[in-house]
Amino acid sequence: MSEHTGPIAPLDASRVDVWDLETDVAVVGLGIAGTCAAISASEAGAHVMAFERAGGPGGTSALSGGLIYLGGGTPIQEALGFHDTPENMERFLLAACGPDADADKVRAYCEGSVAHYHWLVDHGVPFKAEFCDEPNREPVTDAGLCFSGGEDSWPFNGIADVVPRGHHPEFPDTAGGFIMERLGAALAATAVQVHTDARVERLVVDEDRVVGSIVRLDGRDVTVRAHGGVVLAAGGFIFNEDMVAEHCPDAGRPFPAWRVGQDNDDGRGIRLGWGAGAASTRMGSFECALPIGPPHRMARNILVGRDGRRFINEDTYTGRIGHEALAGRGGDIFMIVSEDTFEVNFVGMRIQWAAETPEELAADIGVPPDALAETIAAYNAGAERGEDPEWHKEPEFLVPLRPPLGAIDLRVESKAIYATFTLGGLTTDPASRVLDAQGAPVPGLYAAGRTTAGIAAHGYVSGISLGDGSFFGRMAGESAARSR
What we know:
Distance between the termini: 36 Å
Strand content: 15-25%
Helix content: 25-40%
Largest sheet: 9 strands, mixed
CATH topology of the largest domain: FAD/NAD(P)-binding domain
Radius of gyration: 23 Å
CATH class of the largest domain: Alpha Beta
Shape: elongated
Structural class: alpha/beta
CATH architecture of the largest domain: 3-Layer(bba) Sandwich
Number of strands: 20
């Protein structure tokens, strides 16, 4: 354990001579989780101070694509003819975000999803009743709904009714900045006092209760008394290479060039929580996106590992593909295409090798010739029948691969896009209270967003970070306000 990875020890309140600032609720971080926490705490009647380390609110949320995972029968789903229920949404999320997804959090999120949709709309985030049929990425238009987690592919289409839940704000293409602009305006309409360029150095505890923090503000350490509690919403730890190496090595071996986040995703919020006695969960979990499409027609091709065998259904969620490719195959995979199925995707993937036979192509890319030939023969035989008995790819993507064949280099060493971020963090309950190793709440401490282990456990769906960050951020703010 290095000085950059361990707990940050709190200061005992007996050593505070004077409190420079006093508030009911102190919020650390103003990405979507912290912003929603501050708004909800203020609207619950609490006096709130928010401390953002950067020069302004937004955080990693502002850099995101802007999908928010919502369901259970939102107005957009209903208007577009998609029938969903909280129970159906729950079945899907437990499977897609598992194994070991927090069932209590998943249920709370699904049961509260429609109300949360309305809360977001009421706070300035609009959605348009238009469906985008290009999955796994935010629409390039301002369309309001898309598939964003493999809901329409195996195995999930056999677990829950197929319903899209990727809600995209009424803004073209990447909308994270737009969401944070709108929520920032909602925050500005409250009485919350926002301090930027403010880094929380330590928490302050009185016996076992968190009662405040020490904040580096305007070049000096300022003591902040928080009567209701402190909300930690300071991001994950993908930009702390020491923490990644210690807790989540699969996300950084070799360390991908594409880290999703910003410099302040350095684990500080987690370390502050540890110092106050908080437990953490699933610190080795991470998400890894490997963009195959758009267009989704690229799913007509096949993916093989170093053994020359397929390892997943190519029409599934690209985050599921990326995670299996990196964690399960060491980032050592290839896409096999034919002249009829290849096209340049939105990140510009190109064919690196071409050959007339599977055996020749295998020799070029360094996989066993017999294995690749058998893989392609079996795949083609099934595709001719409209079946994929091995991986259950949907019939519309089953096209025999005929010579000439090509291979796209998707090895991590070739600088293919393996976009990773961490999923583990502080252990919290559905009320966003931080828990200790025995499962008891740490008095006065709340958390939300990537500082916590949220809904996504070992699996992921696009939009769940903004979804559970905003939802459980609200819960954190309300819980802290009630404790004042």
